[in-house]
Structure formats: structure tokens, C-alpha cells
């Protein structure tokens, strides 16, 4: 077949082909959870009683915003990796907006609908100039387009950093650091290690919203790649991996089955009990994060921890 006949595969299709044809553990990247349905389901997750993470993030942000303002002074440019709808960011922007002069907010997200919500919600607090891209790609754009002499505050909230494997974190932070100038600030929100039952329940809620969020990945492949997954033939499963200090989400095949993905023109086999590993949510200590900070060229300035749900907001300065 000539190249012009075969349509170009999307990044999603290419990653699915690779992730499902691994000889060992099948896996898919959690970035693909966030299509329009997945983004809404994630918003629902943040309202669940079991998922204390987002409320803790919001509480600490609200509490630390004024202190941050006095530590770092007024800020002209705020960039956010994985902004989502920007719900939590509004307090931060209100506290940081300079008395006179403008505040530019550049949310980066892979979900266009989340960015639209962001623009509608925060438009009265700051000038919004959104970037529809992956984290690092978007940060490169923001860094290239920034004005000289205005310090930048980069936000990375909600423990999104927990999706990275530990061995990827140092390289990721170095790449972040390379886009910043000395004196810029980085605020990272991390979920801390806590009671095991709390960590598990946060990803295995009683009414099955997180299960739907996980299974939507199969539906998304059906919708966008012409796959024929039977969602009922897979189950949501949550595991705690002690040595890695992380919660893993999997989709378990309930029986032996074959799935065809038409845009890949390929079938994939699943054994009964075989899983697709869809997400890792790592849990940290403040000390561990401080080590990552130093190694990547940041100076940890201060951190704030929620009193109800162990979650830390850590403010670092680029050295
Ligand atoms: C947005 C990546 C921080 O890992 O806790 C919530 C996503 N997955 N429930 C997390 C998620 C299942 C969330 N992060």
C-alpha cells in the first residue's frame, strides 16, 4: 500500500499499538484518560468523599496564597502544567495579581474543553492565553514567548507529578528547570504517603466513578480508533505497590478474548486475568521531593501541608 493511501495514524493510535503489543505487561498512558468524557469523569472524581486529594490541594492553596505573595512578590506571568478547568487556580491568581499592571495566565492542557472552561472562569482575574499541548511542549512555547524581565511562576498542582515513574522525575524536573530562568518560581503539589486504606479507597470509590473513568479508555479506543472492546468484559482494579509507593490502576480482562482495532488493522489477544496497566499515582514525602528539587537545580523555599488529608504544596526557586 502506498503512503498516500494509508491515513496517518494519530499519536493515540501509535501509543495504543505499542502499549497493547508489549510482550509482558500491556499498558496505556494515563494522558489518554482526558478526552471530553474522561475530563468530566475526572471532575466528578474530585467531588467524591473518598478522593480527598483535590479538596486538600484547594485548601492548602487558599491558605498559602497570601504567604506566597509575600515570599515571591507580585508576579506578571503564571504558567500552569495540566491546568484542567483551572478551578483551584483562581485563589492563587487573585492573591498574586499585581495592584497595577497586568497578570498573564497561560494554562497548558491536552483537553480543549478544559481550556475553554478555564478561559470562561478566570477571564476576569487575569489575561488568559491558553496553550493546547502536552506539559513540556506547552512550557517550551510559554518560555519562548515570554517577555524579558518578568519573573514567572510555574504551577504543577494536584499531584500530577505522581503519574511519572520515579526514575522519570529527575529528568522531567531538569527539563522543566531548563525552560526557566534563575529567580523564577515553581509551585508543585504532591500527595503524601498516608494510611493504606485511604490511598486505596481514593482510587476505588464505592459508586464506581473511578471505574468508569478507567473503563472510558476502552470506550475512547472504540470511538476514536474503531476498536470493538466490550467494556463489560473488563474490570477496574486498584493495587498498592509498597516498594514503589504508588497506587496502580489496571483494567483486568474477565475472560480470554480478542479485540480488533480497525484503524490499526490488527487484533490483540487478552488472557483471562491479564491486565492493561493504565495509571500509576505515586505518593511522596516532603524530604523525597526536596532531594529531587536540589538535584534539578531548584531551591526549596517553603512548603505547606493540609491538616486533614496529607498533601503538600511546595514552593521552589530556580537557582
Ligand atoms: C490527576 C493524576 C493526580 O493520580 O490521583 C484520579 C488522576 N486517577 N483518580 C491521580 C486520577 C484516578 C489523579 N491525577
Characterise this structure:
There is one protein chain. The protein has 319 residues and is an alpha/beta fold. Helix content is 36%, strand content 25%. The chain is built from 10 helices and 14 strands. The chain has helices at residues 11-20, 36-45, 53-72, 89-96, 112-122, 135-145, 166-178, 196-201, 209-225, 286-295, and strands spanning 26-27, 77-81, 104-109, 127-128, 131-132, 152-156, 185-191, 234-241, 246-253, 257-261, 266-270, 275-282, 298-305, 311-318. The strands form 3 sheets. Strands 2, 3, 4, 5, 6, 7, 13 and 14 form an 8-stranded mixed β-sheet that branches. A hairpin with a 4-residue loop joins strand 10 (257-261) and strand 11. Helix 2 (36-45) packs antiparallel against helix 9. The longest helix has 20 residues, at 53-72. It is globular and about 60 Å long. N,N,N-trimethyl-histidine binds next to helix 9 and strand 12.
Amino acid at each position: 500500500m502506498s503512503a498516500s493511501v494509508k491515513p496517518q495514524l494519530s499519536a493515540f493510535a501509535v501509543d495504543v499499538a505499542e502499549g497493547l503489543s508489549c510482550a509482558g505487561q500491556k499498558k496505556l498512558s494515563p494522558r489518554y484518560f482526558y478526552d471530553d468524557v474522561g475530563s468530566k469523569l475526572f471532575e466528578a472524581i474530585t467531588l467524591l468523599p473518598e478522593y480527598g486529594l483535590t479538596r486538600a490541594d484547594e485548601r492548602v492553596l487558599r491558605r498559602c496564597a497570601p504567604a506566597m505573595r509575600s515570599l515571591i512578590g507580585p508576579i506578571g506571568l503564571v504558567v500552569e502544567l495540566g491546568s484542567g478547568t483551572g478551578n483551584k487556580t483562581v485563589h492563587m491568581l487573585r492573591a498574586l495579581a499585581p495592584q497595577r499592571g497586568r497578570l498573564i495566565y497561560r494554562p497548558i492542557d491536552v483537553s480543549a474543553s478544559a481550556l475553554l472552561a478555564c478561559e470562561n472562569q478566570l477571564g476576569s482575574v487575569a489575561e488568559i492565553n491558553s496553550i493546547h499541548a502536552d506539559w513540556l511542549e506547552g512550557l517550551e512555547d510559554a518560555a519562548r514567548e515570554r517577555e524579558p524581565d518578568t519573573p514567572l511562576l510555574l504551577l504543577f498542582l494536584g499531584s500530577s507529578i505522581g503519574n511519572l515513574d520515579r526514575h522519570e522525575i529527575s529528568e522531567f524536573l531538569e527539563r522543566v528547570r531548563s525552560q526557566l530562568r534563575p529567580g523564577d518560581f515553581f509551585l508543585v503539589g504532591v500527595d503524601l504517603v498516608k494510611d493504606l486504606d485511604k490511598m486505596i479507597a481514593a482510587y476505588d470509590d464505592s459508586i464506581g466513578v473511578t471505574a468508569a473513568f478507567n473503563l472510558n479508555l476502552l470506550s475512547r479506543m472504540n470511538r476514536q480508533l474503531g476498536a470493538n472492546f466490550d467494556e463489560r468484559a473488563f474490570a477496574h482494579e486498584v493495587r498498592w505497590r509498597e516498594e514503589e509507593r504508588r497506587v496502580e490502576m489496571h483494567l483486568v480482562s474477565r475472560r480470554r478474548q480478542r479485540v480488533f482495532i480497525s484503524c490499526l488493522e490488527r487484533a490483540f489477544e487478552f488472557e483471562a486475568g491479564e491486565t492493561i496497566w493504565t495509571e500509576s499515582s505515586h505518593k511522596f514525602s516532603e524530604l523525597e521531593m526536596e532531594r529531587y528539587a536540589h538535584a534539578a537545580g531548584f531551591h526549596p523555599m517553603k512548603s505547606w501541608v493540609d491538616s486533614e488529608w496529607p498533601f503538600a504544596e511546595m514552593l521552589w526557586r530556580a537557582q
